[in-house]
Design brief:
alpha/beta; 12 strands; globular; binds pyridoxal-5'-phosphate
Length: about 375
């Protein structure tokens, strides 16, 4: 077996696109403060605005509503912290960057397929009248696409504001804010091949623009601090590369191959969210009886990078909270592996994953 490295953890972070790298490198080699009035400052300003307009076009949103920040964690905190004193509801499968900000939030359950329970949401909206609902567009572990249009209309019916963490949706499902004017939308650059350190909060459809960081007039007084010009410009390059060239059909074919292979390998392997609509780049499965940490390490030793769920919980032994909330016990939740593909994934990568996984699985189950 040739020990070449195969990266299949795009939902944690995508490798930087070469064109994004070039732009980041060139901007880091010059002074770039977008508040400065000299020519370098004006060039920095123009790099930021170029990304803002590119994003506005992709989202069908007014560019004025877009605020750049340090990442989706900051964007989620900006919204959730603004409602700290209020009753709010969040889906129980949210990323920790939502769940941990408002631990007392009402939790909306999810189905065994990993879809938000709309009946339960309506019941909470009617009986508890939360001021804000936070529900993600695509789950980072399962890849399950959530019924955001229905969540949006329920929020409108019961006068709640809607925050949507759309980090895993960008580039994978169409996001049209002209059709669905979600009150607060969170995005992140490094999930699509842009650099780390750049996130977005789109807010203002409802007239509310929460502010987390004070102390400077940047981003029209909505996010203080010198802008990360290089990262924002790199994000702009990544946006232009994802728009218009979807690899979704290719991902579907590869994932079908992977799931066919897994099901032939063992009846005990459980593929999560299989009956729900899912983004095609993601395959999340469990091997009950085996430990996901051990499986992941064994795959890593062979040069294959996978995850056991969300990056923030990998490296710890906590079983996936998403699988727990879908109703699975510890054996399934603690034996989960996530494979996520992206712009540089090749058919050879998938073949190598299957070859190596078969060897590792058979060794660990002593077949
Ligand atoms: N929300 C979701 C759904 C994510 O997948 C992630 C990243 O893992 C985040 C938020 C946090 O994003 P960032 O790394 O930009 O802070």
């Amino acid at each position: 077996m040739v020990n070449q490295s195969v990266y299949l953890d795009y939902n944690a972070t995508a490798p930087l696109l070469p064109d994004a790298f070039n732009v980041v490198q060139s901007l880091l080699s010059v002074p770039s403060n977008a508040s400065s009035v000299h020519s370098q400052g004006r060039a920095a300003r123009s790099a930021i605005e170029k990304t803002r307009f590119a994003l506005a076009e992709i989202l069908s949103a007014n560019a004025e509503l877009i605020v750049f920040n340090s990442g989706a964690t900051e964007a989620n905190n900006t919204v959730l912290q603004a409602f700290r004193a209020d009753e709010i509801a969040v889906s129980s499968m949210e990323h920790h960057a939502v769940l941990d900000v408002h631990p007392d939030a009402i939790k909306i359950p999810v189905t065994s397929e990993g879809v938000i329970d709309l009946g339960a949401l309506e019941h909470v909206l009617k009986s508890k009248k939360p001021k804000l609902v936070s529900a993600m567009w695509v789950n980072n572990e399962t890849g399950v696409i959530q019924p955001v249009t229905e969540v949006f209309s329920l929020c409108r019916t019961y006068n709640a504001l809607f925050h949507c963490d759309a980090v895993q949706a960008l580039g994978r499902v169409p996001i049209n804010l002209a059709e669905l004017p979600i009150d607060f939308l969170t995005l992140s650059s490094h999930k699509i091949g842009g650099p780390h350190g750049c996130g977005v909060l789109v807010s203002g459809f409802c007239g509310e623009t929460p502010v987390l960081l004070h102390g400077g007039g940047q981003e029209k007084n909505r996010r203080a601090g010198t802008e990360n010009v290089a990262a924002i410009a790199g994000f702009g390059v990544a946006l232009s590369e994802i728009s218009g060239q979807s690899r979704n059909d290719w991902y579907y074919t590869q994932r079908n191959k992977i799931e066919y292979f897994l099901q032939n390998l063992s009846d005990s392997i459980v593929i999560h969210g299989k009956k729900a609509p899912r983004v095609p780049n993601t395959c999340f499965f469990s091997c009950p009886g085996l430990s996901s940490e051990t499986l992941m390490m064994a795959m890593d030793l062979e040069g294959i990078a996978l995850s056991n769920g969300s990056a923030c919980t990998s490296g710890t032994v906590n079983p996936s909270h998403v699988l727990k909330t879908m109703g699975y016990g510890d054996d399934v939740a603690a034996s989960a592996l996530r494979l996520s593909m992206g712009w540089a994934t090749t058919e050879q990568d998938i073949e190598r994953f299957c070859d190596v996984f078969e060897t590792v699985f058979n060794r660990m189950t002593k077949r």
